[in-house]
User: What shape does this take?
Amino acid sequence: MDKQKQPGVTCENIILKEIFFKRNPRIFENFDHKIDFISTANLTEDKKHLEQELSININKNTPDSPFELSCSMLGFFSVIDDEPNMMLEKFSEAHAPAIIMPFLREMVSNITLRSGIKPLIIRPINVNALAKQAQNAQTEI
Assistant: This one.
């Protein structure tokens, strides 16, 4: 890969795949939220198209929390034929999730705002560090 060039990948679309929200109307105070991210990639056989899913689970199986939220966003990426540079497998490790993250962040803050509680704004995330943690967890198994 030539680090002086652009990756040669285009983002075709980012869509909401799935969302679940459940509000506890009796709890209003601030709460330390339990947040988990999951990133999965599906590559076509010709390795020219990528479907990247980035999911978040907030307060899942956490009793006495003000809400529970699960959301999955799906990004569609493809190689630009005239400008190939970065393999989509490598692109899917951190670049694709980093592109999807602002859409997921906006969805979470919007849903929590509309629920009548203080909106949850997900802090900036080091997607490279998350990818490395996930790789380390897989190799330890």
